[in-house]
Structures are given as C-alpha cells and as structure tokens.
Amino acid sequence: MKKIVRVIPLLTGLAGVSALCASSLFAPLPQHVDFDKEKAMLGKKLYLDPKLSKDGTVACINCHVLQDGSGVDHLATSTGIKGQKGPVNAPTVYNAVYNFVQFWDGRAKDLQDQAGGPVENPLEMGDNFPDVSQKLKNDPQYVSAFEKVYGGKITKETITDAIAEFEKALVTPNSRFDQFLRGDKEALSKSEKEGFELFQSKGCVSCHNGVNLGGNLYQKAGVFEKFPQTDNFTGRYAVTGDEKDKYFVKVPTLRNISRTAPYFHHGKTPDLRTAVVQMGYYQLGISLSLDEADKIVAFLKTLEGEVPEIAK
Length: 312
Ligand code: HEC
Ligand code: HEC
Description:
Blueprint: H1 2-15, H2 37-47, H3 60-63, H4 111-120, H5 129-137, H6 140-150, H7 156-168, H8 176-181, H9 190-201, E1 218-220, H10 237-240, E2 248-250, H11 272-284, H12 290-301
Antiparallel strand pairs: 1-2
Helix pairs in contact: 2-7, 4-7, 9-12, 11-12
The structure holds heme C (2 copies).
Residues 202-204, 206-208, 219, 221, 223, 249, 251-252, 254, 257, 260, 263-265, 275-276, 279-280, 283-284, 296 line the site of one heme C.
C-alpha cells in the first residue's frame, strides 16, 4: 500500500507529459559557457596532477577520463591510491555543473564543495590540503599561476575554486537531441524519435528531465522492486539520517550515457540496454520489450555531445 501511495504523484505527473511540448521538460545545453580562462587553465593543471594525492599516483583524471567524452573511469567502482577500491561507481564530471547537488547522496552543495572531497578521501587521493598546498608552493609554475589568479594564495579554497572553474567548462553541447530541441526535426531518425516518445510515455521523463535529463531531484532507487544496493549504501539517508531518505539518490544525468558504462551506483550493469530494462522494472514496474528498450537506447545515444576544446 505504501508503495502505491508513493507512486501516485509520479503517475499523475506523467499523465500530462506526452501532451506537453518536449521543450518544457528538457532544455538544450548552452552552446557557449562563460568561465574565467586563467582560473580554468590552472584548474585543469590541478585536475591532471597526481601531486594532489598522498603518494603522487592518483589525479582527478584517473577516475574521470576526459578525452573519450565520458568523464568516468569505466570501472564498476573506482580505484584510489594503493589500489584501494571505493564503494560506488564514479559519475561523470561532464555537465556536472548543471546538477543541483554533487555526489550520489548529494552531500556536496556545488563543484567547489565537491572538489575538496576526493583529495582528502582516504580511499581516493588520501591527502590533506595543508600538505597539498605545501607541495604546490614548492613548484615555481604553480607559484606564478596562483600569483596571477589568486594573488599568491594557495589554499584549499583557491585550489578547489580553480578546479571548479575548470569543471564549469566541461560541458558537452550540440548533441543531436539538443539540435532536435532547438527545432531541427531531422536531427533524430525515426527509431530515435520513437525512443524519445517511449522515454516520455513509459515515464522515464518523470525522473530524468531538465537540461541534464537528471541531476535535478532525489529519487528512490527501487520504487517498485527492491533495487540491488551495494553493501551499506543507503543513499541520502547517510546525510540526513531521515528514514524516508533511505535509498534515495540524486537521479543521475543521462547526457553521454552511452559513453559511461558500467551503470548505476553499484556499477554492476555492464550495458545500456540492460540498464534501461532494469529501470523499467525497478522504477516503473513494467517490462519493456527488447524492441522498446532498443529504441530507448537509440534515443539515449543521441545525448552524446561534443567534447569541449579545453578537455582535449
Ligand atoms: C579514486 C577515484 C576518484 C578520484 C581520484 C576522483 N574522483 Fe570524483 N568521484 C569518484 C567517485 C567514486 C564519485 C562518487 C562518490 C559518491 O557519490 O559518493 C565521484 C564524484 C565526483 C563528482 C560528482 C558528480 C556527480 O554527479 O555527483 C565530481 C564533480 C567529481 N567526482 C570530480 C572530481 C574531481 C574534481 C577530482 C579531483 C580533485 C576527483 N573527482 C577525483 C571517483 C574519483
Ligand atoms: C522514479 C524515478 C526514475 C524513473 C521513472 C527512471 N529512472 Fe533512471 N534512474 C533513477 C535513479 C534514482 C537512478 C540511479 C539509481 C542508482 O544507481 O542507485 C537512475 C539511473 C539510470 C541510469 C543509469 C545512470 C548511470 O549513470 O549509471 C539509466 C541509463 C537510466 N536511469 C535510464 C532510465 C530510463 C531509460 C528510464 C525509463 C525506462 C528510467 N531511467 C526511469 C531514477 C529513475
């Protein structure tokens, strides 16, 4: 009974969806983003630099690869310093600036807040900011870059600010879906359009909407059936301690989703078609046919955007 009550607002939300114009539920990524070039270039240098880790072996880029347009490491769960395995799958850094909070459980309020996390996480980079700042102060290149951009201040605040500025530029515009939203009706093929219709009529859109097709609300993983959680993973509950937040996570973005396998916080779903079928089962209580799943996958592939120059 409880389950049904929870789902009603979801479904009443859905009833009107197909009647609505797609453009009110989705928005294309901006074709041009504003950022401070000098800060972002310093942020890029930091992003690529394993000096930010305790033993000098792990940089942000190890777990969030940029060149292939994925922003992830393609592992079920990430590997930090000394080969340590983390508990959850790495989400993409691409377009993360448009997420309303950061991390699966939303424990960081923005990118700058987030960037402090991995550096000090013992399973990831295992360092601390006083030590990292000291290492950077010993490097004349950093000294002059920080001098230019932050008047010489090399602190947690300036380090994370520069990284966040770089991440603001990690936006992948001009996907075929965005071209379609901007009015080019030929940008999607017939089966991709059918996939988009299914995405709306089956109810995916109730959680995956907005500019990132996700990233703008918390939802429970496992609305209709118990979702396979990784050990001790309770989602938003870990942050709030509120029973009703158990297994709620930030709904992930679907942008570039065809590039970011494996899927879900557990990283145990190897391919997109399986992920789509599982979403139908766990989140919507339906079984999608293989034909429907294939069409939705075809649609999701149109969310591949352009890799920005700064990421190359
Ligand atoms: C050892 C691998 C690893 C390293 C190194 C790492 N990350 Fe992550 N990153 C992850 C994992 C795993 C998560 C998800 C953790 C969670 O939600 O609890 C994550 C989450 C994020 C997110 C949040 C995305 C979202 O949608 O919630 C951003 C942004 C991010 N990392 C950027 C960075 C930056 C910047 C650095 C370098 C300072 C960095 N990461 C270093 C593995 C890593
Ligand atoms: C009730 C909300 C809800 C609905 C409806 C929903 N999703 Fe999701 N989706 C989520 C949440 C929450 C997650 C993250 C689950 C986790 O890993 O804990 C997710 C994850 C995903 C992922 C994996 C993302 C990643 O980075 O690993 C894909 C792909 C996906 N959804 C596609 C779909 C499709 C296609 C549909 C429709 C068939 C759909 N979703 C319906 C909430 C929803």
